[in-house]
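Researcher: Can you fold this with 6-diazenyl-5-OXO-L-norleucine in place?
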Amino acid sequence: MRFIVGLLFSVAALLGQGALYAQSSTPIITYNTQFHPTLARNGMVVSQDEHASNAGLEILKLGGNAIDAAVATGFALAVTHPQAGNLGGGGFMMIYLKSEDRVIALDYREMAPKAASKDMFLNENGDVDNRKARFSMQSSGVPGSVMGLTEAQRKYGTLPLATVMAPAIRLAGEGFPVSWALAYSLDRYKGRLSTDDASRNQFFKVDGSSYQEGEILRQPELAKTLTEISDKGAAGFYEGWVADRIVESMQTQGGLITHDDLKGYFAKEREALEGTYRDVKVVTMPPPSSGGVHILQMLNVFEGWDMKALGHNSANYLHRLTETMKYAYADRSKYLGDPDFFNVPISALTDKAYGSSIRRKIKLDAATPSTEIAPAPNLPDESKDTTHFSTMDAAGNMVANTYTLNFSYGNGRSVAGAGFLLNNEMDDFSAKPGSPNGFGLIGGVANAIEPGKRPLSSMTPTLLFKNGQPYVATGSPGGSTIITAVLQMVMNIAEFDMNAATATARPRIHHQWFPDRLIMEPGHSVDTRLRLAEMGHNVSGTASYNEGERVLGATMTILRRPDGLISGSADPRRPGAYAAAY
Ligand code: DON
């Protein structure tokens, strides 16, 4: 069943069929299909869920800016897309403020609790206990989402927080009709969610059965928590009764987060990473995201080749992509971690000359086995569900936001009495050098567990600028495949001039150095697959590390056209995604 549904998504994605696009009566100009993005004049919100996109749209129509809309969407997703929308997780927000022509890179990633330690997930034999790292209370880092969303709103929004949070509070309190996508997902994850009393009570009916499509899901405890945040701001979560409930859940289930950890949590504005690909400026998330660094690194490699002349998704084009990905993920394993704890050689990795040196190493006619590729020996020091949404307003402000609980529904555990799920982001640390995490990624000291440290992430919200004007807001979920999905979006738009819908619909590939496997989505031509296999690539089907997932990423993209129209595309690879516009 899972396979068949996955296959259907893939086929629909490739055909650009309308079946997965919810329709609405919003007076937009065209609907999103494979070659035609959603077009509008005044503003747009693209997210994984229709209710959440509409929550953002409601705020835009009230006169809110792209930041107000993003915060409204972020809180609404915590209600209607509990797989990844969250209060108990963390993420990154890239904000472009048109009036100041300034980008803000807001890091609200979870932090390791003070009681965390390097070997906390090792068993008596010194092996990683994956259950503990992924599903225990100790798998949760100190949540950052509420700090991130409220801070973005306070500093860069224009409406009162209560106005912006009203749609989310309404959706939680009055309830909303469960979409096909949510009904399917909750049922599929019933095992994980129903072992925890609080999660079972929240997401299943009193008799334990699953919600069917169209039935109303009400979350009164979550509504109460949201109201507290709406009244008191971040203090309504990090202090007071919500904090008490979090600490209580920790104490009864062996978790580490204390009142002190919650009070000590801070979001951080970091300097955005800036690079160029030909005439397009790429502005993206710095560490503790690894995505921004590696996308700039890989673009630098491509820039020295005439990629366009190779033909989009030709074997020779994909060969260059794959080989470059291997070098980037090799460097990721050694050099990337929380910059507050580890000196990440950002400028060395994103230097155009370093890109050229990788380019020179790549054989143009044959794959180099991953075992023969290692992280650069010494770079100079410098002194399984996530969700992305993008918003843009008529003034040209834009937001690209990716946030997550890590796996779908995080560790599956909800805070009793407060109605929200907790993350299992501690698994994004490297629990032991060389031992793969839930996404098959390996790492070492740079990403070892330390109190107060933020686990390395692949989340890569990204903004593009052209001729000095705001151009694109994009990003994706997909764990380790986020970086390569966003990379291919940048290439499709910046190199091949595709519109948002075509850029989204084109089949993707992924390679992450180890395992030495080239994942190709369905839709690549058979001769391309065969040619790549002949070149020595270990071409696999489409599986990723996310159980049952058949596709790579789910990008939510908005592109401002030269004529001023706002054009966007919700990725049809995962069901339920929706572009709301007016
Ligand atoms: O931050 C990261 O890289 C991971 N926690 C993201 C997990 C993810 O994307 C799962 N989604 N499909």
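Model: Folded with 6-diazenyl-5-OXO-L-norleucine in place. The chain has one domain: 34-290+336-344+382-508+551-582.
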